[in-house]
Every structure is written in structure tokens, then in C-alpha cells.
Design a protein that fits this description.
It is built from 16 helices and 4 strands. By secondary structure, it is mainly alpha-helical. Helix 5 runs antiparallel to helix 7, helix 10 runs antiparallel to helix 11 and helix 11 packs antiparallel against helix 12 (about 310-320). The longest helix has about 40 residues, at about 265-305. The model is unreliable at about 20-30, about 360-375, about 385-410 and about 435-440 (pLDDT under 50). GO terms for molecular function: G protein-coupled receptor activity.
Length: about 450
């Protein structure tokens, strides 16, 4: 019993040591105004770009009646709204909503910081779940053949619309009720206590003390609260990656089927459209991973007490950019054909500038047939017609690779009928023989 209590006290002492060391490193990291200004500017510009791109996607979809009725586009609109909420209230505003005197550049109040924390948390975590909804929607449409009517009839669309809000809203309301919207060193975030790094033991928490007692009690290694921070990513990550894998398998099977079977033009166009939609869904998954991976890595490093300056800079640049990536994927069907056209024009220009040896080889491979060759072929077929009437033995030449095989055959005697008029132009058989004779002469 005494050994267990000793181990517990040692673990608590070790945890306190790592916590104080990490806290000191973070405070040293932010001990100058220049560093704070640099951090704020770094995260502000990507956030502004993301807001503008998300607003463009929202307006573009809403203004098109045939586009705004699609389930996937409606999810993209909701995803873009969440991106605007997070990018504006958290990285763009930065420390501005924080109470005056609590951070460099702070010009707000406790209420303003709580509001910013509520909307930024709602936008960030809801966008994670909406990425999973979008991936599921693409799998249902492409892999299982569900259309808009079937999605609406089975109420799957409303499930994809509302489930993210049903999951995230209680979490945000709980943080607001427990006074958890406070300044966290960079922005106003959810589930934070004030002042920073208070533990209700050495430093009494003025706001958010309940959150510290429930979520941020440290053990010997990591605080258990960080698991709640990345819980949406842990839940949605496998769903999104699994959907991407299913879409990739579908595209691969379609390509193999196109190579193996001869299909009609309409079927080929339908499969091509399905492949394009599936590829669009895969790109949305990559846009999600471009934001979630830096977030998970940054939180994991923070939980392990590894205070690296890059820990703050890299997520500050990459995390607000989901609106930008979503806009790039959304507009890809419009600008990608233009890029392909430009690339094809460049290839045509390059083919016109070939060397003389290449042009000579192409001319010899496609050398035209002379008039003399056509006349020789025509006379040979005329002689064959006369011999067929007489029942004489004729010799015919058949191409076998690059050689000519001579065969003798007894032509049957034609019945006594009026000889049909000779064609004024060589027919298709004469032209084929002429092609062969022309190639053999060369």
C-alpha cells in the first residue's frame, strides 16, 4: 500500500516537473512583442484567404439553382460556413477578442473572448464531421449508385446535414456554461482556464476551474484532455480515409473494365462521369487531411511537452487553409480542362519542331501509292476476270508478313451470262491490293 502511494506521489511530482518545464518554455517563447506579432501575422493571412475562398464557394453554389439542390453541394456549403466561422473567429482575430491586458494586442472583453471561442470551436469541430459526411455522400452516390431522389427519400441527406451539429453543439454549450472560453496563448479557445496554466492548486483558476478539474488533470505522461481535443479527428479520420479507399477501388475497377471490354459510347461517357465525380471526392479527402494531420501532430507534440517553435508556426499556417483547399477542389472541373487544353497545345507545338530524320522516317512510313501501281493492280484483276471465264489455272499472291506466297488454284467456270460492265473506278479490293503492291515495291 505504501509502495503504491509512493509511486503515485512520484508520478505526480514528475508530471508537475514536466508541466512547469513546458510552461516555462512556452512563456519564454512569447516573452517579446516581436514574436507575438509574427505569430499573429502568420496565422492571419491564411485565415483571410480561407474566408474569402469559402465565401466564394458559398455564393457560387447558392446562385445556381441546379447546383444548390445537390446533396454533395449542400454539404460543401455547410462545410464552407464552418470554415468561415473557424478562420475568422480564431486565427484571423487572434488575440483581439481577449480581455484588455491579458495578451499583446488584446482589445476585447471576457464576453467577446467567450463568443469567439464558441464560434471558432463550433466551426472547427463541425467542419471535421462535415468532411466525413461529404465522404460518405460520395461513396453512396458513386459506389452504390444512389441518386438525389434516393438520398432524399431515405432521409440520408438530413442525417448527413444534422449529425455534425448534433454532436458538436452540446460540447460548445458545455464549454460556455463552464466558462471555458478563454485566451489560450494564441487565440480564444474552448475548454481553456483563466489565467493560463492554472491548476486550482498552486494557482487558483478564476474562470474554467471546472474544466481543469474534469478534463485537464495530468498523469505521469499526458493530460487526458488532449484526447478530447482530437476526438473528432480520431472518429472521422478512419471514416474519411476508408471512403477514399473505396472511391479509389471504384475508379480502378472502371479503368480495368474500360480496357478489357468494348463498350458503347454512352456507357463510356457515363463511366467517365462517374470516375470524375469519384476523383472529386478523393480530392476533398486530401483537403481534409491537409488540415487534420498538422492539427493532430501539433496537439500530440503539445501533450508530450515538446515546446518547439515550429509547433506553433506550422499549424498556424496550415490549419486555416481548408477553405482554400476546398475552393481549389470545387473549381477544379472548370479550370482543369483549360489546363489540359494548354498542355495539349504545347505538345502540338513541340511535335511541329521535330528534326529532319524524324520527319523523313514518318514520310517513308506513310509514302503515297503511285498511279502506276494502281494501274498494274487494275490490269491484274482484269486478267483474273478473263481467266475465270475460261476456267484456266491462275496464280494468286497472298501476303504473309513481308513475303509473298504464290498459290495455284483451279478457278471454277462461270455460268454463261452476260458479262457485267467493268467498273470505271477501282473498287475496294483493287485498292487493298494496290496498297500491298505499293508497299512491296518499296
Amino acid at each position: 500500500m505504501s509502495s503504491d502511494s509512493t509511486d503515485t506521489s512520484n508520478n505526480n511530482a514528475l508530471s508537475d516537473f514536466y508541466t512547469r518545464a513546458y510552461t516555462d518554455a512556452v512563456i519564454d517563447r512569447w516573452n517579446t512583442d516581436e514574436q507575438l506579432i509574427l505569430e499573429q501575422q502568420i496565422q492571419r493571412w491564411p485565415a483571410l484567404l480561407s474566408c474569402l475562398c469559402s465565401l466564394y464557394v458559398i455564393v457560387d453554389i447558392v446562385r445556381q439553382p441546379h447546383e444548390r439542390v445537390k446533396v454533395a453541394n449542400r454539404i460543401v456549403v455547410l462545410l464552407s460556413v464552418c470554415d468561415v466561422l473557424y478562420s475568422f473567429w480564431s486565427p484571423f482575430l487572434g488575440s483581439w477578442p481577449a480581455p484588455v491586458g491579458s495578451a499583446y494586442g488584446a482589445a476585447g472583453s471576457v464576453a467577446a473572448c467567450s463568443t469567439a471561442a464558441f464560434f471558432s470551436g463550433l466551426g472547427f469541430y463541425a467542419s471535421t464531421y462535415y468532411n466525413a459526411s461529404l465522404a460518405i455522400c460520395y461513396v453512396l452516390m458513386i459506389c452504390y449508385g444512389w441518386n438525389e431522389t434516393k438520398l432524399a427519400a431515405r432521409r440520408v441527406a438530413w442525417f448527413l446535414y444534422l449529425i455534425p451539429l448534433v454532436i458538436v453543439l452540446p460540447w460548445c454549450i458545455l464549454s460556455l456554461a463552464w466558462e471555458g472560453g478563454n485566451y489560450n496563448g494564441r487565440t480564444c479557445g474552448m475548454m481553456q482556464a483563466y489565467p493560463q496554466f492554472c491548476d486550482n492548486e498552486l494557482v487558483k483558476c478564476e474562470r474554467g476551474g471546472k474544466i481543469v478539474d474534469v478534463f485537464w488533470q495530468n498523469n505521469a505522461n499526458t493530460p487526458r484532455g488532449w484526447i478530447l481535443m482530437v476526438l473528432p479527428s480520431i472518429v472521422c479520420g478512419p471514416i474519411v480515409v476508408g471512403c477514399m479507399f473505396l472511391l479509389y477501388l471504384y475508379v480502378l475497377r472502371q479503368e480495368l473494365a474500360n480496357d478489357r471490354y468494348r463498350i458503347s459510347v454512352s456507357t463510356k461517357e457515363s463511366r467517365r462521369h462517374s470516375q470524375q465525380v469519384a476523383f472529386q471526392g478523393i480530392l476533398y479527402v486530401w483537403a481534409y487531411l491537409a488540415v487534420e494531420i498538422p492539427w493532430i501532430v501539433g496537439v500530440s507534440m503539445w501533450a508530450q511537452r515538446k515546446a518547439n517553435p515550429a509547433l506553433f508556426v506550422i499549424p498556424s499556417i496550415l490549419m486555416p487553409l481548408q477553405g482554400w483547399w476546398n475552393a481549389v477542389v470545387y473549381l477544379r472541373p472548370r479550370y482543369w480542362p483549360w489546363i489540359q487544353q494548354r498542355l495539349s497545345c504545347c505538345c502540338c507545338t513541340a511535335s511541329k519542331t521535330k528534326g529532319p530524320e524524324q520527319q523523313q522516317g514518318e514520310e517513308s512510313a506513310t509514302r503515297p501509292i503511285s498511279v502506276e501501281t494502281l494501274s498494274v493492280a487494275e490490269e491484274s484483276f482484269a486478267d483474273d476476270d478473263d481467266d475465270m471465264e475460261k476456267g484456266e489455272t491462275t496464280t494468286t499472291s497472298k501476303p504473309t508478313g513481308t513475303a509473298i506466297r504464290i498459290e495455284e488454284s483451279k478457278r471454277p467456270t462461270m455460268p454463261d451470262k452476260t458479262k457485267p460492265p467493268r467498273p470505271t473506278k477501282p473498287d475496294e479490293t483493287i485498292l487493298q491490293s494496290a496498297v500491298f503492291l505499293g508497299n512491296s515495291q518499296h
